[in-house]
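Annotators were shown the component list below and the corresponding predicted structure, then asked to write short factual statements about the assembly.
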Amino acid sequence: GAGVSQSPSNKVTEKGKDVELRCDPISGHTALYWYRQSLGQGLEFLIYFQGNSAPDKSGLPSDRFSAERTGGSVSTLTIQRTQQEDSAVYLCASSFTGGHGELFFGEGSRLTVL
Amino acid sequence: DAKTTQPNSMESNEEEPVHLPCNHSTISGTDYIHWYRQLPSQGPEYVIHGLTSNVNNRMASLAIAEDRKSSTLILHRATLRDAAVYYCILRDEGGSEKLVFGKGTKLTVNP
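Structure shown to annotators:
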């Protein structure tokens, strides 16, 4: 497709389980970003990739959160030992230049931790 | 990242112009002013950005004060589809690549 694709769109998991969220950026976009948005809240930056490198991981809330990007394309955000406070919509965005290029966001993955 | 200040909410009537203000008194010379909006249950989408001069595109216009300490996003004729949260964001040309989203302005459009 032409846009940023995220999967799954919805994920319900039990506390303590690990989850993986996937992002397929727009083809050719070198920069990729992960954000999360808790219910009724603003967007919280998590991590930024330029190619396969992550020069800014400052927003990852704990060492339970990790992300990787392979082949300069697909990225996976992994949350280990999920907690109820991890429940949120996880949004991925990509951009062409990584500098002032327009960010294109996906529809997000809604994570619910029971 | 320099901070922006926006009203929490605004209301408009359909087919009328909307002026969404943003204050950024600590803006630096290399900060670009970006606007994004987030429709209900969707990811944010880019609206417009500028540095010093006023900018126009198919979605909106961006009016930047001469001292760059404030800017205004102008929707020329609001439609119901324009109801969204609008975010004004400063992005340093030479700094971090991330966008830092504040709370934005929730725009309600009345039919």
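Statements collected:
1. The longest strand of chain B covers residues 84-92.
2. The two ends of chain B are 37 Å apart (CA to CA).
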